[in-house]
Amino acid sequence: EPPTILLTTPESLEQMLAHEPMHDVLRSLRWVIIDEIHALVGNKRGADLALSLERVQARCPTPVQRIGLSATCAPLDAVARFLVGVGRACAIAQVVDGTPKQFAIEPLFDAGSSEFPSSLHGALLERLDVALATHATSLIFTNTRHLAERVAWALKRRHPDRADEIAVHHSAISPARRRSVERRLKQGRLWTVVSSTSLELGIDIGSVERVIFVHPPGGVVRLLQRVGRSGHRPGEPRRGLILTASPSELLEAVVTAAGGRDGAIEPLLSCNAPLDVLCQQLVGMAMTGHWGRDDALALVRRATPFRELSERDFDDCLDYLSGRRRDGTGWLPARLSWDSDCFTIADARTAKLMRRNLGTILTEDACTIQLRRASDEDLDRTQNVGEVDLAYAERLQPGDRFVLDGRCLEMRERDDLAVIVDEVIGRPQIPRWLGSGVPMPSDLARRIFIFRMQAAEMLHEGPDTLRRWLATEFDLHDGAADALLDYFDAQETLSETPNLRELHIECVPMQVCTEYFVHIPLPRSANEALTRVLLHRWQHGNVKAMAVAADLGFYLLDQSAIAITPDDWRRLLHPIGLRDDFQAYLARSDHVAQAFGRVAKTGLMVLRNPAGRKRKVGGKDWTERRLFEHLRETEPDFVLLRQAAVEACSSSCDLGAAEGFAQQLESLPIRMRTLPRPSPFGESLLRMGPLPVAVPRAAETEAYPLGATA
Description:
α15 (442-461) crosses α17 (478-494), α18 (524-536) crosses α20 and α21 packs across α22. The model is unreliable at 689-710 (pLDDT under 50). With 710 residues, the protein is an alpha/beta fold. It has 25 helices and 22 strands. 41% of the residues lie in helices and 16% in strands. It has a six-stranded parallel sheet, sandwiched between helices.
């Protein structure tokens, strides 16, 4: 008796398809509704779902209608093609959202300051006190779990009488605790919830009156999704308050809010034929029957992300899963076996192991935090609070205090599976989880660059002209407008505002080194690629340098006594050979090895849960250290190595955008300004970038990656 409605996830659907009895349940399927489809289009979860839907359709006697829902997706035709697959029609129903949106933007710093205020945390909490007092329920968004925990804990300390009405919600909190927070929020029993990203999709809470952003959200889509959690009552507007910590953040918030009012959401990027996902799906297909090679290839190519999959890549995946090389010689344990011209799963034991490892969501090594109940002396009777990174847990000693779930926890002891803690009163440390923050979309980076140019033109006509423009076009008044006006005036006084007609480089000579601030209308991902190529092409012998890639440019610290001329910059950023030089830099770094660590798990070469529980095979980082190096030496064209190389290029770098800018630079003049100190725009490059890294000396072979975590 199949259910009338089944609510599931891409991962659970793949698990169902790996069990033959579930195929009978799904045979009567008539509709598939994919909510928040924009969150799937450009990643491996979406590619995995696309293949699962084709497998569902192959088992259903009648066509299954697919319905995709999203309030923030573009371009619509590309999303439609992803939804329905290759060769099927799709009708697009675009409904205009007439709900008014109210964005308030406030600085937490004084006008005329280009630095983060020393009392930023105190200023933030004071402003939150005022904002929370005026609404029954508020939702606070931060861009990291670390900051979410810090804000929630501080609010509980400031409002002990309402501590039970303040909660934190992010992916490191235990699922049971997250469900409890969601239930209490829906019942109107919470004053505020502090979240990182886990509440920006899919919740409909009528009592949330305003959404507060601690720092800009990092894109128009994130802004609209998050502010859309408020005002779910007839006639109620969507209200959002964006709190900023510096002039550059204020500038980003103004441009992001303007894009939100105009509906200028960023276009989604496609995820083209991830081969590790294909390997996983082929194993799932083999668990429930026999497949001919051509039939399987035809099914896979009906999924839009795999529409251009080459036969070579497909056959390489089958060969790897069959434990053989292209020439037919064996070299790996086989996941698949062949019966005549058809493949199926190797055996029942293999099927059991593979089912435990399906799915594309890879979490970093984590340690469970278990809270000992006050009334129980038996340590086995504990409550799961959440998780912290394993590296952080391994540094904890008995008596150490940290915050999780907005509570101060003190470590008592640790075993192989968990850290046992007590809830105490005191001043704790905040755990840091692995992550790279919120990447800025390229469209937003360019809009910010153009906004700065327009503001500079207004300022040339007079401060009042700029102030009126900010008020009429962007609804910016009082302190926020004055702060931006001072920011642009300081830039124009010391240097000038970069424009699209030339490459603007600011040079600050010092006694033993020279600082260069290179202003480019690209996000950090593209500037990462440019900076890595520049470091690879560095030809100053034994001279060292430091580099930081950021949104809207990059920073270079040169320790040589020779100035870098415009001709030098053209040579260092020349488009010819740029892709090859980038690949050469990657070959000397550990980015491909890190990507292979993820690909090997998704592609079922290294099992995440080999015996039903997480285990280390060969010690920490064994996949990245030992297995990667062995394969690179013995099987350099291995299919998962190729996938890792693709991901190393795209995960943190936008090589295509970098190449495009390098080609434009050939026809652009280069303007260099020598300054006595960094300009306000130059200082923002240092604040927005990750930690600086060194360029290796010419004689050294080891590279220093630019992928440091901010």
